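Thanks for the sequence, V.! I ran CbbQ/NirQ/NorQ/GpvN family protein right away. Repeating your input here for the record:
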Amino acid sequence: MSTTETIKMASEEVSEKRTIPFYKPIHREVEVFEHAYKNKIPILLKGPTGTGKTRFVDFMAHQFNQSLITVSCHEETSSTDLIGRYIIKGAETIWVDGPLTKAVKEGAILYLDEIAEARPDVVVAIHSLTDHRKELYIDKLGITVKAHPDFMLVASFNPGYQKGFKEIKPSTRQRFVAVSFQYPNAKDETEIVVNETGLDQDAAKKLVNIANKIRNLTELGLTETVSTRLLVDAALLINSGLPKRLSVKVAIVEPLTDDLEITQALTDLCDLMI
Ligand code: ADP
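Predicted structure:
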């Protein structure tokens, strides 16, 4: 297998037959998605890491009984990765559709996770799919493919990461409807932790209280704060028998910071609250 094939397989994930994923709606995102899907308007999910964006797309794909193709974008992700490329197979050179082309032809939902991380030519490649044309131009083949009526484009973006240098251009943003994801309220977040892990309600509530306490400590200047994902990880460790304090330290505190003083202060705080 060539390197390109390996990379393609590593960054692209196709989920067809899935069990229903658990998703707790936080605002009116389900309703917005339903209408955007009906009208085939691309959606941009904005928000910090671990706030349920990926889970939401998976859930919605399931609601519509649609295949979901996920591409985790990074700084090397190019339009070629998405559209496709020629590869050498034995004595032959064959064309292999990339995830975008596949989704456009088959009518799948394409989820570009962290789109701002990708190279600028990715945005150029999706332009004609995000307006009335709804078509994809494959320059290497010199053809234009009309999008299947069920094709839908979803992208995510973490406004916190970019700090000015990896923004999405306003002209691109305006091609999407945008939905904000934030941390759920304490009641909903407790329900998510319990559902995801089977941890008891009281212990889950304590984890959520810890998260909210740390989220409010803005003076610590953490680049990212406690996400629901970290709480789920802590709950899983507790459930599998790791002591509570150690679980919280390794799943919540340590991933947030390398600063020894902040680590100690947060550990002390969590030890009191768990
Ligand atoms: P993101 O894509 O925003 O980084 P994810 O969708 O991967 O975040 O969410 C991380 C984890 O948090 C999920 O695997 C799930 O366990 C949990 N989670 C967060 N929000 C929700 C929600 N609203 N409903 C159910 N699970 C959630």
